[in-house]
Amino acid sequence: MGRIIFFDGAQAIGGTKIFLETSYKKFFFDFGLNYKQRGMYYEEFLNPRVANGIGDLYSLGLVPLIKGLYRKDLVEMLNKNGSADLGDGSEELSVDAVFLSHAHFDHSAYISFLREELPIYTSSTTIAILKAMEESGNPTFENKMFEFKRRGVPSSKNEEKGTHIFNAIENTEVIGNTYVLGFPVDHSVRGALGFVVESSEGSVVYTGDLRLHGKRSEETINFVEEARKRKPDVLVIEGTNLRQDSEVKEFWTEQQVFDEAYKIFKKTQKLIITDFSIRDTDRLLTFLALSKVTGRKFVISLKDAYLLDKMKESVMDTPGLDDPNIFFYLEKHESGTYDEADYKRKWMKELLARIPKNKLLKAEDIRANEGEFAITLRFFDLQELIDLRPSKGSSYIHSSSEAHSEEQKIDERRMDNWLQKFNLYPRFHVHASGHAKKEDLFKIVDEINPKVIVPVHTEHPEIYLEQFGKRVKIVKNLDKIEF
């Protein structure tokens, strides 16, 4: 008899931690950060204390109670604080692997806390994205997944770094007598996988996050077909967009995003600013294509450039740094003088050494000929508007999901304050969801035709129940099902 335990993400969008056990092996699907639950205790200036290791997160129930799972240095810190709940770090590994569906932090971030020797299996593209984001960003204790500093050692003596083991899954991994097959699916980040598990107990399918209305819908269709062939006992399926009909807005395809944004590009005489998730390279390609057909130069940040460069090793259609329409925005750092020494981080130096000087643009270069450019800025880049000073007749295209939480709504109001100040209000909202719409989710279930349907990654699991009846098992965190 196999079993599945839903440690987190059962009735929330994100924080997914799904444990699966067969007679031979135990592993997790995803080990993510639950933003909603975390937001009950923390916000921008109130964060878990790094000096307390995993202690704050464990005390608040933000990581599950499982011995033999977490890094030895973090468990030892917890012991010093008087709690032996997670063991002492000498226990054998309690799981054999983690299978990671994709690079979004609500599925991946808390891998940072897991045992170093625990293998992580995912796509080569997901590895490239996470590594590039970590190297070029400012990772925190909660999402530093590759190289990390061991905790509980005096800073003056702590020079030893730890690392996690990431493995590129090539369709099938055999864990004991259990086969885990990973299939590409379409999502708003490249490299996303859906999984099929085959064991002597039966078969289980986990969709991860997926959609049918994106640019690579054929990948999702192929995954659904492969899942159907296995006649699964259990289908664990996302339900992000399971909402009442009255609340559902039109689901645009990426082509519709292109068509609507094209109208904005054509009528805008001055600067165009685009805002989308740094991991959504499909959207980047859409705005690059729009820039080409409307005769604009597409300007991206150095972080975008670094991510593209790393992705090109595994995703062949990723544009290179030599693309004639791509230019690179050079932000001020350190001294504010654009001195070479200001760009001292290793990834910056390596990247700048490869970019031709005539493709590096400062704010004054864009300001002087703003009608020639479309530039990508995001919420945390809005201060660049002070240097860019867009003229009346400029446009801001917000191409991300709408605000849902109260914190996101506050950020959205701040964004609008900036846009009003700099001739960019009202903004245009042009977006295609990374998640399947309700009708497509129902279609996926019908095609796969499992014995049992388990909704996760949703706040409305009851909608599956209304559609599919007794086959649906609605679970809460820590619930178990057997197969």
Q: Brief description of this entry?
A:
By secondary structure, this protein is an alpha/beta fold. The protein has helices spanning 35-38, 55-59, 72-80, 105-108, 124-136, 217-229, 254-267, 281-293, 302-311, 346-352, 363-368, 385-388, 406-421, 438-448, 462-468; strands spanning 3-8, 17-21, 26-29, 97-99, 119-122, 147-149, 161-163, 165-168, 172-175, 178-184, 193-199, 202-206, 234-238, 272-275, 297-301, 326-329, 360-361, 373-376, 395-398, 428-429, 452-456, 480-482. The chain is 28% helix and 19% strand.
Q: What topology does this entry show?
A:
Blueprint (H helix, E strand, L loop, with lengths): L2 E6 L8 E5 L4 E4 L5 H4 L16 H5 L12 H9 L16 E3 L5 H4 L10 E4 L1 H13 L10 E3 L11 E3 L1 E4 L3 E4 L2 E7 L8 E7 L2 E5 L10 H13 L4 E5 L15 H14 L4 E4 L5 H13 L3 E5 H10 L14 E4 L16 H7 L7 E2 L1 H6 L4 E4 L8 H4 L6 E4 L7 H16 L6 E2 L8 H11 L3 E5 L5 H7 L11 E3 L1
Parallel strand pairs: 3-4, 4-5, 5-8, 12-13, 13-21, 14-18, 14-19, 15-16, 15-18, 16-17, 19-20
Antiparallel strand pairs: 1-2, 1-22, 2-3, 6-7, 9-10, 10-11, 11-12
Helix pairs in contact: 5-9, 7-8
Structure commentary:
The chain has 483 residues and is α/β, with parallel strands linked by helices. It folds into 2 domains: 3-243 and 435-482, Ribonuclease Z/Hydroxyacylglutathione hydrolase-like (Metallo-beta-lactamase, Chain A); 254-429, Metallo-hydrolase/oxidoreductase (Rossmann fold). 28% of the residues lie in helices and 19% in strands. The strands form 4 sheets. The chain has a 7-stranded mixed sheet with strand order 8-5-4-3-2-1-22. A 7-stranded parallel sheet has the order 17-16-15-18-14-19-20. A 6-stranded mixed sheet has the order 9-10-11-12-13-21. It is globular. The chain starts with a strand and ends with a strand. The model has no long low-confidence stretch (mean pLDDT 94).
